[in-house]
Amino acid sequence: MSPGAEEGIWYIDLKSGTGKLGKGPPPSEAGCTMTMDSDDFVKMFAGNLKPTTAFMMGKLKIKGDMGLAMKLEKLMGKMRANL
After folding, report:
1. Longest Cα pair distance anywhere in the chain, in angstroms?
2. Residue 78: what pLDDT?
């Protein structure tokens, strides 16, 4: 469970079709689990905190396939470029 204003468990599934996002445990086994404060999560997706920096500072904890976590960082950069 992630602490912060929006405490909870959320999942992003990028393996099926157009993808899925939801609150609660993922419907299938996760290849990578990331844990962080919800305020830092918002900063990360807004582009104000780089995932690599968050990881090195201990603000982001990753379990599982580190390669998948790195792919998410690239995807976030593409999303911001399209906004």
Report:
1. 34
2. 78
Task: Please report the domains of the chain, with CATH numbers, ordered by start residue.
Answer: 29-81 (3.30.1050.10)
Pair of tokens at residue 70 = 């790195």
Q: How far apart are CA 23 and CA 9, in angstroms?
A: 6
pTM metric for this prediction: 0.73
Burial code (b: 16+ CB inside 10 Å, e: under 16) for 44-80 equals beeeebebeebbeeebbebeeeeebbeebeeebeeee
Q: Name the more confident of 5 and 7.
A: 7
Asked if pLDDT for residue 57 goes beyond 90, the answer is yes
Q: Of 10, 7, 12, 17, which Cα lies nearest the Cα of 72?
A: 12
Q: Are 50 and 57 in contact (CB under 8 A)?
A: no
